[in-house]
Amino acid sequence: MGGNNSRTVTLEEESDGAITISENVLKLMIRSSQGISEDEHGGFTETHQGEHSHSDREWKERIRQLEEHWRERLRNAEEKNANLAQITSEQFNQAAENVEAKFMKERFVPICEKLQQAVLDCYQANPKQVLKCSEEVKAFNACVQHTQNSILTRKEMSPST
User: Which of 64, 76, 104, 139 is 20 to 30 A from 114, alpha carbon to alpha carbon?
Assistant: First the structure.
């Protein structure tokens, strides 16, 4: 360190073998490794030729600039990530719509619902005498057969894809 000032430095060894030093000692070590020494007035001067002196203010400014630089990079990365997430979500939704359009072309609607319900009601009313429901079953079967025939006739008439 420089000047005529004498200093006492205490190092503490932790139980895990690490040595704890104060922030001021760390700054002095960094400055010393970079050729900066303390003068008798408490200021710092460069010991290497051609280099400028660094003050605490300059160090703090440099640290602030670096922090701002990395904050900006983090903001940019977060924006890019949000944009990619948006694009990915849109692409997923588009792909889902395409799959639906290809494989779910036909919408199925229940057929002969009233007749089906009549059969179920009859079976529930006559659990041990199901032959009493034969008229309802015949009507339901006729409705289903008629619907099948009309669907097949429409498909035969429409052009093949």
Answer: 104
Q: How confident is the model at residue 91, as a pLDDT?
A: 94
Name the 3-class secondary structure at 143: helix
Let me know whether 128 and 101 are in one domain.
Answer: no
pLDDT digits (tens, 9 = 90+) for 41-63: 555 554 444 444 557 888 889 89
Range of the domain at 69: 55-105
Query: Looking at the whole model, is its pTM more than 0.70?
Result: no
Q: What total of structural domains would you count in the chain?
A: 3
Q: Judge if 27 and 64 occupy the same domain.
A: no
Same domain, 125 and 95: no
What does the alpha-carbon distance between residue 26 and residue 32 come to, in Å, rounded to a whole number? 10
Q: Does residue 7 sit in helix, strand or coil?
A: coil
Q: Can you tell me the distance from the alpha carbon of 120 to that of 112, in angstroms, rounded to the nearest whole number?
A: 12
> What is the DSSP secondary-structure string of 12-65?
EE-TTS-EE--HHHHHHHHHHHTTEEE-TTS-EEE-STTPPP--HHHHHHHHHH
Whole-number Å distance between alpha carbons of 3 and 41: 8
CB contact at 8 A, 9 and 28: no
